[in-house]
Specification:
Layout (H helix, E strand, L loop, with lengths): L11 E4 L7 E4 L1 H5 L1 H11 L11 E5 L2 H13 L2 E7 L7 E8 L2 E8 L8 E9 L3 H12 L3 E10 L5 H4 L5 E6 L1
Helix pairs in contact: 2-3
Length: 175
């Protein structure tokens, strides 16, 4: 992806949130700066050289929504909200997963992806990789093809990339 190292100055560390021992990466300063936000979205919307266009962009609740929706718009693609359990109003597919500080369930609408559609997954942070793995599983179960994963921040020490070895993952920042 594009050289985005200067975006790091818009990410602040919040120690011990949401639980003791977790270093939360707060992207609200980046979202509040029009230039930084635009550069972030532009970089996340870049597709890999030689790849086919994507049909859909999946954004993972909640900060992933903020990034994925404008990426979908730039790519001329539809948007899929990947939500926490019980938040979607129609029939869903569900997938349980572990994260850095607990367990959760993600869902998509059963009809969110048509067979063979190419889906780019966009999120703010790749940490342990559980959220991405659950999202990828949901997309595949719905019949979609995962075109890749683009994230703003990869927390390298937590090994999320290793949990998803078959995926093309691009991160703007590695921390």
């Amino acid at each position: 992806m594009a050289d985005s190292a200067d975006l790091a100055r818009f990410v602040r560390d919040i120690p011990d949130w949401p639980t003791p021992g977790v270093m939360f990466r707060d992207i609200t300063p980046l979202l509040g700066d029009p230039d930084a936000f635009a550069r972030c979205v532009d970089a996340l919307a870049r597709t890999r050289d030689g790849e086919q266009p994507v049909d859909l962009v999946a954004g993972i609740e909640a900060r992933g929504f903020i990034l994925a929706a404008p990426v979908a718009h730039q790519l001329g693609a539809g948007f899929i909200p990947v939500r926490k359990h019980g938040k979607l109003p129609h029939e869903t597919l569900s997938e349980a997963y572990s994260l850095e500080y607990g367990e959760a369930v993600l869902e998509i609408h059963r009809d969110a992806v048509a067979s063979g559609q190419r889906v780019l997954v966009v999120d703010d942070v790749l940490a342990t990789g559980g959220t991405v793995a659950a999202t990828v599983e949901l997309i595949r179960r719905a019949g979609g093809e995962v075109a890749g994963v683009n994230v703003l921040i990869e927390l390298e020490a937590l090994g999320g990339r290793g949990r998803n070895p078959d995926l093309s993952i691009d991160a703007l920042l590695t921390m």
